[in-house]
Specification:
By secondary structure, the chain is of the alpha+beta class. It has 22 helices and 14 strands. The longest helix is centred in the middle third of the chain and has 33 residues. Belongs to the glycosyltransferase 39 family. Pathway: Protein modification; protein glycosylation. Its EC number is 2.4.1.109. GO terms for molecular function: dolichyl-phosphate-mannose-protein mannosyltransferase activity.
Length: 738
């Protein structure tokens, strides 16, 4: 009976609870709500203005159109996650991808949802404002300091400009801040509730945010490394905590490794998986990729190579593409023209038929694989496949001359041998046209030469020279095509000496005229060949990392030193009829103050460090640890996002400094609060310092308001007004005002 009474008693208690309304209480930080609201207002106000292509929107817009049309593209500036986020805005806005992104300032057509395309950068820029507040709170700063940091992010003109356009810097900054905030919340949970639900949530979110930062732009890896470094130091201290059991310490280490290493790696792969699933059609960037990659795309090369015979046989007609693909993708080529008797430098040549590498598809790219022991140029039935180590001859399809090399210096590479198609001049220079096939990526020594899949070297039997693309452009007598040479194998090999069969058919014509008809007629068969995701990912990743950035000078390019001194700016957009315009301009008061705060922090840090070495502790231990952590996050975030640019050989712009600037702005209130709390020892000094801060922030607000027409571009400016807003004249604004 007692067993039955307990459930009944529980039931009656539940009925008693239902007699009263269910009430949920929640703590709402009105500071965060207010900062979010003003952040949204500053970034979303008149977001679709100007309705024209602004600066780098001309590039990102092309990628969005490619996504909408499912066309493959490659951008060497970073992984595809950021582009996919921008494309998501276009997709939600109903964009069909039909717009010609050919010039800055072009008016958007009615089918381009400008507001939707710019929405995501604007939202991330707006959310960075309350996030700055929360980061300072997690670092142990006061509400006033945290609010000050958020307000500085709010009125910084360059951050506003960059976040109101279809650009990725504000998205990168958002994920940088999210990674730092998540880790700080995790670290604070560690002190109170390790392995709790919130502990796991913030730890996992840290890994996700780090992977998203790297997925937006490669420079996001700097913040990721910073978070890993701070987490590594904390883990090291945790290992030394004797109050924890070995099992507990192991659990902490494994949890951090899974969240901060495994999760980001998995997310990074996921970005590429989604990207390659979306862009499955052939496009203008195909030629950068290998033949196998191109054949995996719908249309383009896949349409040409579809159903080609897999195994290369004696009598096969093939085109040979250089695997290296630099300076441009090209195919082994020959034509009727011969090398000049005497080069410009006075050296002589063999006067044989030229062999080059030609960067366009052409009938003169076709070669026939011949068995040296037979005269026929057709494929037997059944075909006799060519294997690794076989000796072959390559016959140029249109001229029927044999690929040849001999001990004659190449035209532009005198230390290498000239490669030609042999012409018999009845002189004492016999043909040397035997080549040994070496399959570089073979799995066994009896591997068959395969179309597209096999990467091969052709080694000259007589001289042991390997057929190689030198990359040099021949003079006008060589039609500016690329030089092909024979280089001694003993010097090692490079990808420029590796080739693969791209187009392939089994030759059937017995006579030369029949063969020429075959060479002009592409084969069409209904068979397809696909690469695995891992193979496509690895190739795409390699191409992105090795893609040559445009090192040419730009009108608005600048050096990292110019960023700190604000000695540069960028004109983003100019109204075609009025003088309204948008410039990337920083708030000079905030930039100069943030740089000064970095110097002050460094001086104070080393001063305290020296005194602590002398056993003089100016700060209590917990205050010292907070001071060090704030410096590691804020000053460290500035350093890792700024200093690497000094080592980069690429065209740099002012907006590259914005992630570093954001961390530097976070450091500014930390230093100001420290000065107020620790160095201003009397109430009078604190009052004077507070008044000075009010005046300083008023100056920052005034500069923001003065630069506002160039931030939003919604006001026409006269030449004199524009001149007054130049960087070096910004201080004059304050002098005239105060």
């Amino acid at each position: 009976q007692s067993v039955l009474e307990d459930p009944l008693l529980l039931f009656y208690k539940m009925l008693g609870y239902l007699e009263h309304p269910v009430v949920v209480t929640a703590d709402i930080n009105l500071n965060v709500v207010a900062l979010t609201a003003v952040g949204l207002l500053s970034r979303l106000w008149q977001l679709s203005y100007p309705r024209a292509v602004v600066f780098d929107e001309v590039y990102y817009g092309q990628y969005i159109s490619f996504y909408m049309k499912r066309i493959f593209f490659l951008d060497g500036s970073g992984p595809p996650f950021g582009h996919m986020l921008l494309a998501l805005g276009g997709y939600l806005g109903g964009f069909d991808g039909n717009f010609l992104w050919n010039r800055i300032g072009a008016e958007y057509s009615s089918n381009v949802p400008v507001w939707s395309l710019r929405l995501l950068p604007a939202l991330t820029g707006a959310l960075s404002v309350p996030m700055a507040y929360q980061i300072l709170m997690e670092l142990g700063s006061s509400h006033w300091a945290a609010t000050g940091a958020a307000l500085l992010i709010l009125i910084e003109n360059a951050l506003i400009t960059q976040s109101r356009l279809m650009l990725l810097e504000s998205v990168l900054i958002f994920f940088n801040l999210l990674a730092v905030l998540s880790y700080l919340k995790f670290a604070n949970c560690q002190k109170q509730r390790p392995f709790s639900l919130s502990w796991w949530f913030w730890l996992m979110l840290t890994g996700v945010a780090c992977s998203c930062a790297v997925g937006v732009k490669y420079v996001g890896v700097f913040t990721y490394l910073l978070v890993l470094a701070v987490a590594g130091v904390h883990a090291w201290h945790l290992i030394g905590d004797r109050t924890l059991s070995n099992v507990c310490v192991l659990g902490h280490v494994l949890a951090r490794a899974a969240a901060l290493l495994v999760v980001p790696a998995a997310m990074y792969l996921l970005f590429f998986y989604v990207h390659l699933s979306l862009v499955y059609r052939s496009g203008p960037h195909d030629q950068i990729m290998s033949s196998a990659f191109q054949a995996s795309l719908e249309g383009g090369l896949a349409r040409i190579t579809q159903g080609q015979p897999l195994e290369v046989a004696y009598g096969s007609q093939v085109t040979l593409k250089n695997v290296f693909g630099k300076p441009v993708p090209c195919w082994l080529h020959s034509h009727q023209s011969t090398y000049p008797m005497i080069y410009e430098n006075g050296r002589g040549s063999s006067h044989q038929q030229q062999v080059t590498c030609y960067p366009f598809k052409d009938v003169n790219n076709w070669w026939i694989v011949k068995d040296p022991g037979r005269h026929q140029l057709v494929v037997n039935n059944p075909p006799r496949p060519v294997r690794h180590g076989d000796v072959v001859q390559l016959v140029h399809g249109m001229t029927t001359r044999f690929l040849n090399t001999h001990d004659v210096a190449a035209p532009l590479s005198p230390h290498s041998q000239e490669v030609s198609c042999y012409i018999d001049y009845n002189i004492s220079m016999p043909s040397q046209n035997l080549w040994r096939l070496e399959i570089v990526n073979r799995e066994s020594d009896t591997e068959v030469w395969k179309t597209i899949l096999s990467e091969v070297r052709l080694v000259h039997v007589n001289t042991s020279a390997v057929l190689k693309l030198s990359g040099a452009h021949l003079p006008d007598w060589g039609f500016r095509q690329l030089e092909v040479v024979g280089e001694k194998l003993s010097r090692g090999h490079h990808e420029s000496a590796v080739w693969n069969v791209e187009e392939h058919r089994y030759g059937r014509g017995q006579e030369q005229k029949e063969r020429e008809v075959e060479l002009h007629s592409p084969a069409q068969m209904d068979i397809s060949r696909n690469l695995s995701f891992v193979a496509r990912f690895l190739e795409l990743q390699w191409r992105m990392l090795t893609a040559k950035s445009d090192g040419s000078e730009h009108k608005y390019s600048s050096s990292p030193l110019d960023w700190v001194t604000l000695d540069t700016s960028i004109a983003y957009w100019l109204h075609p009829r009025t003088s309204a315009q948008i410039h990337l301009l920083g708030n000079v008061v905030i930039w100069a103050s943030a740089s000064l705060a970095t110097v002050v922090y460094a001086l104070l840090f080393f001063w305290y460090l020296l005194r602590r070495r002398r056993k003089i502790c100016d700060l209590p231990e917990d205050s010292w640890l907070r001071w060090v952590l704030a410096g590691a996050v804020c000053a460290g975030g500035w350093a890792v996002n700024y200093l690497p640019f000094f080592l980069m050989e690429k065209t740099l712009f002012l907006y590259h400094y914005l992630p570093a600037l954001t961390f530097q702005i976070l450091l500014l209130p930390v230093v100001l609060q420290h000065i107020s709390d620790r160095l201003c020892r009397t109430q009078l000094l604190r009052s004077l310092f507070g008044a000075l801060l009010v005046a300083w922030y008023s100056c920052a607000c005034h500069v923001f308001n003065a630069l506002r027409p160039l931030t939003y571009g919604d006001k026409s400016l006269s030449p004199s007004e524009l001149k007054a807003l130049r960087w070096k004249d910004s201080w004059d604004i304050l002098i005239r005002k105060y």
